[in-house]
Amino acid sequence: MIRRTTLGLMMTLAAVAAGNAQEEPMASTEDLSRFARLALDCVHREYPNQISHVMQSDADAAPPRRLTPVFYGCYDWHSAVHAHWLLVRLLHLYPDAGFAGPAREALAVSFTADKVAGEVAYFQGAGRAGFERPYGLAWFLQLTAELRAAQQSVRGAGPAPRSADFQTWLDALAPLEEVIAERLQSWLPDLLYPVRSGTHNQTAFAFALALDWARIAGHDKLETLLVEKSRRFYADDRDCPLAYEPSGEDFLSPCLMEADLMRRIIPAADYPAWLSDFLPGIPRDGTAGWLHPGAGPDSDPTANRLIWMGSISPGPGICKPSPLLCRPTIRAARRCWPPLPSISAPASPR
What we know:
This protein is mainly alpha-helical. It has helices spanning about 1-15, 30-40, 65, 75-95, 100-110, 115-125, 135-150, 165-185, 205-215, 220-235, 255-265, 270-280. The two termini are about 40 Å apart.
């Protein structure tokens, strides 16, 4: 239940667009505090835990905190990553809030050189080349992208972290960041087709988060690979079957995530025409009656994959840096489809 709610709330909070940091998410103090509590409650909570773990011998059997010493909480590795991202995001946007102190302390506990060395060692273990690829890897890069953005635009006064804190954490994570960027860079040339699912393997969502990182980190080679693959996979797509969504285990919209990715790729002047062909049913007046939320099972909050439906939303987790797709309102944690603004005013890609 915590994992589902964290994801749904996090997706709504994350709607502030990259390059548009002055526009704050429309969230109440109560909602923001709830976001923080959810992340703080799980980032260092080891159990229950689902491990995707390749073992070569008995020596590889160990508890999560020893296998991946930074990201062992929140049920699985990628959930731990995006819960840490949520805390960084909150500190970035609300450095003087009541949750800032506990968030800062939790991040300082996690982001240490020795713990990151343990993560790197795990990634380099035999048989783990595909670990958390692409979803978890993209989320990790979004985490360090957020640290970079926060370091560049620290706001507020009082006991909140200053740029030195963000830079210290970024420096600690740098060895793992290098490994993860290289994993994606070596994988992309071999990827012959997009993955259009609504779950972790979806390529559009991962490409978007990784591209944000490549641009803010100045990683030109990964940026070039992502742009080339995105154009090859998606530029000619038309009439995305949004009416077929959602599938029964989706938490990402394949159509909307592709639209969100391509607004980063296609020049602003050309994007409205592409989007009109890709999603011809979008009203030009900016209304959102055509878009409906997913609904997870209310009867069994432990119904693992079925509860993903309750988190489906077009915003990050989903469309974090997407002024096109994210104009959020805080609704129930499991229902957060925001309205889509007019296609005549897309965000400009870099």
